[in-house]
Amino acid sequence: MSTDPELRFQEEQRSTRRMWAIAACVLLSLAASFLLGRYPSPYLTPPRSILSDPLARSLVLNLRVPRILTACLLGIVLSASGTVFQLVFRNPLVDAGFLGISPGAAFGASLAIVLADGRPATVQVSAAVFALMGLLSSTFLARRARLGDWTLRLILAGIAVSALYTSGTGVLKYLADPIRQLPDLTFWMLGGLWAITWADLVQILPVVVPSLAVIYMMRWRLNLLSMRDETAFSLGAAPGRERFVLLLAAASSAAVLVAKCGQVGWVGLIIPHIARRLFGSDARRVVPGGMLLGCLFVLWCDDVARTLLTGEIPLGILTSFVGAAFFLAMLTRQRLGAQR
Amino acid sequence: MNPQTAIALRSVSFGYDPASPNVLNALSVEIPTGRVTALLGPNGSGKTTLLHLILGLLLPTQGEIVLAGRPACQYSRREVSHLLGLVPQQEQVVFDISVADYVLLGRAPHLGLLQLPSQADTAIVLEALAATGLTRFRDRTVPSLSGGERQLATIARALAQRPGIFLLDEPTSHLDIGNRRRVLELMHGLVSDSGTVIFTTNDPNSAAAICHHVILMREGRILAAGSVSDTLTGPALSATYGVEVEVIDFRGRPLVVMH
């Protein structure tokens, strides 16, 4: 980024200030989240109380900290992958639900709950495998299709694969034992971070960290890849190959987190829109800005989910409710930051 | 090949589908360096397909394309993007990217895959915006521009790319008279700066206004190629468009009038 005030565009100056403000907000929220909970006392607990109570200390270090860090990572990944999907597909209304990733994860989890032992590890592995299979089968079908350009073929293939997965999940719900299996299945689909441990966090890092690094480092390139094939090609890009690399990074990181955390909807759809409103549509700013906003959004929702009531509120319900409300507000004010 | 030849086509044919007739048939022509060349022909004559073949977006089913003395197939994608800059027919920008950020995309061929644009790239963008008269629009979003302004923004992006050869696909087709004149003058200016300009058009008067060299196309074939005085004649244009036209002299330039 240029340091010469003469050459810096107005939008860049505004968005940089906003970015710093949101980063400060993330740090403050993180600090507050460590003190928020239901034990040893509901809502905010002074640090002294946590330090003096061995059970509270253990609870915070072994459950609350990994959960909070995973919530941050979930927000970062879902918003980064949502931004990638929207730019690559040149469509502001897509997220990880496209390309069969979320429906694939739902099918995989249902399969593990209904037909296998239903243990968390089995559910997560099965969800991750079928989410990635969603991506691979969408890509394979798009290569075989003989209609339109690469982007259109991939969207159509993604819709078809998602529909197949959704119908498969429907069959599994129909077959599920209504007493033992259906509640597990329903709760997984509503999404949540109650079961996250340090081991879970460590398991997702090898996929998530390189994927986020690829997305972050190629963020300016995303602007180019959001243009039509002939433009991207004429500017030296290999549109198909570069889009595939970015989609693979976005899809694999989203798949791994959806497998761990269940269906946490609307983050990947709404956060890129809010980021575009705050930082402009240049992906150099939308990607990091969206990551910060996504982190903040999921962190706040998870704080509410685990603190507000004595019982856990499924995270997916909160993110969907708040996300849909935001989306409607932006839609009616025509502030989507896009022309479709 | 003549050293003054920017692009040479040698018996180039192309078809989208092997089962269907070719879109372009055995085209052989040389396009001179440092000149404005118009690819002129009715809708569907294969002008845009020919531009895409020159760019390398499509590959000829037969024949060879030679760019600056070397077969096109020997160029890497990056080398081609240094040599050729495309201004597409209608750029569709979905997201509200600013004009400055849009023009900055023209620097992509000069940057690595993971590299961000530098201050020097920003300075080149500002020059391109000034050359196209878009400096005051630099913070506006591309979708909010009028058709003419958007076309100028696309030309500014090609200027920021700094290629030796500009390929413009129907650059004046959706413009009013004022914007058409601005775009034509800008294209003429590109040649003054030692560039080569090739543009497609179905309007013979746009070609007559600025070009030095004309290629007349119809149904995937080249009917005539040469200087303005040799090609923009009544009989040649009548054969190209399938309607009778007359060419009159207007202040030393041909003016095409339809009967």
The gross shape of chain B turns out to be globular
Order of helices and strands of chain B: EEEHEEHEHHHEHEHEEHHEE
CATH homologous superfamily of chain B, by name? P-loop containing nucleotide triphosphate hydrolases
Overall outline of chain A: globular
- Helix count, DSSP H or I runs of 4 or more residues of chain A: 14
What would you say this structure looks like, in words?
The complex is a heterodimer of chains A (340) and B (259). Chain A is mostly helical and 340 residues long. In chain A, 75% of the residues lie in helices and 1% in strands. Chain A has one domain (10-332): Orthogonal Bundle (ABC transporter involved in vitamin B12 uptake, BtuC). Chain A contains 14 helices and 2 strands. A two-stranded antiparallel ribbon of chain A has the order 1-2. In chain A, helix 3 packs antiparallel against helix 13. Mean pLDDT of chain A is 87; it is low at 1-7. Chain B has helices at residues 47-55, 77-83, 99-104, 119-131, 147-161, 177-192, 204-210, 228-231, 234-241, and strands at residues 5-14, 24-32, 36-40, 62-67, 70-71, 84-87, 165-169, 196-201, 213-218, 221-227, 245-250, 253-258. Chain B has one domain (5-258): P-loop containing nucleotide triphosphate hydrolases (Rossmann fold), CATH 3.40.50. With 259 residues, chain B is of the alpha/beta class. In chain B, the strands form 3 sheets. Chain B has a 6-stranded mixed sheet with strand order 6-7-8-3-9-10, with helices on both faces. Chain B has a 4-stranded antiparallel sheet with strand order 2-1-4-5, covered by helices on one side. A two-stranded antiparallel ribbon of chain B has the order 11-12. In chain B, helix 4 packs across helix 5. Helix content of chain B is 33%, strand content 28%. The A-B interface holds A 1-4, 7, 9-11, 87, 90-92, 217-218, 220-221, 223-224, 226-231, 233-238, 242, 276, 280-282, 284, 337-340 and B 52, 55-57, 77-78, 80-82, 84-86, 88, 91-98, 100-101, 105-106, 108-109, 113-114, 116-119, 122-123, 126, 138-139, 141, 143, 161, 167.
